[in-house]
């Protein structure tokens, strides 16, 4: 999934979790999916940051 698709899915998950109409097992399943999507999105942002730093000739050791 792309970064944008991850964000869209996260928004859907949040809306479902906020509805208070989910059984606990479904809520936990959605929460787990959201945690994974968050981790993937964070990695994508870090990679983009590294790419921009590299393109700007900045030190990429941090």
TrEMBL record:
Cytoplasm keyword on record: yes
Gene Ontology cellular component list: cytosol; exodeoxyribonuclease VII complex
UniProt KW keywords: Cytoplasm, Exonuclease, Hydrolase, Nuclease
EC number: 3.1.11.6
Pfam families named in the record: Exonuc_VII_S
Localization in the cell: Cytoplasm
InterPro entries listed in its UniProt record: Exonuc_VII_S, Exonuc_VII_ssu_sf
Catalysed reactions, semicolon-separated: Exonucleolytic cleavage in either 5'- to 3'- or 3'- to 5'-direction to yield nucleoside 5'-phosphates
Keyword Hydrolase: yes
GO biological process: DNA catabolic process
Molecular function, one GO term: exodeoxyribonuclease VII activity
SUBUNIT field: Heterooligomer composed of large and small subunits.
NCBIfam families cross-referenced by the UniProt entry: xseB
Function as written in the Swiss-Prot or TrEMBL entry: Bidirectionally degrades single-stranded DNA into large acid-insoluble oligonucleotides, which are then degraded further into small acid-soluble oligonucleotides.
Record family assignment: Belongs to the XseB family.
Protein name as catalogued: Exodeoxyribonuclease 7 small subunit
Organism: Ruminococcus albus
Organism placement in taxonomy: Bacteria, Bacillati, Bacillota, Clostridia, Eubacteriales
Gene that this sequence comes from: xseB
